[in-house]
């Protein structure tokens, strides 16, 4: 089962209200995801939805907000190194889907 997380929900959990908002990459006008906020969202999904004990999550910065774009995050779940695949589902709301750890 996969869960979709709107990036806008992450904004409410952040101390800085601009965190998590897709921003243009320095060289382009392309909207990108904030890697730190994706990490926080992935960790929350793994812990709440999959009942996994996600100890750490590392995701790449500046991933494009384009429907269908996928990338991988490294996670530590119950002491084991694993990976999850992130798939962007909405450009408008910067929603993404998180796979189960593999």
What do you see in this structure?
Pfam families: DUF4333 (PF14230). Residues 1-20 form the signal peptide. It comes from Kibdelosporangium aridum. Residues 28-92 form the DUF4333 domain. The protein has helices at 7-13, 35-48, and strands at 3-6, 23-24, 31-33, 54-58, 63-64, 70-77, 80-90, 95-98. The longest helix has 14 residues, at 35-48. With 102 residues, it is an alpha+beta fold. Strands 1-8-7-6-4 form a five-stranded antiparallel sheet. A three-stranded antiparallel sheet has the order 2-3-5. The protein has one domain (3-98). A hairpin with a 2-residue loop joins strand 6 and strand 7 (80-90).
Entry summary:
Keywords: Signal. This protein has 102 residues and is of the alpha+beta class. The protein contains 2 helices and 8 strands.
SSE order and pairing:
Blueprint (H helix, E strand, L loop, with lengths): L2 E4 H7 L9 E2 L6 E3 L1 H14 L5 E5 L4 E2 L5 E8 L2 E11 L4 E4 L4
Antiparallel strand pairs: 1-8, 2-3, 3-5, 4-6, 6-7, 7-8
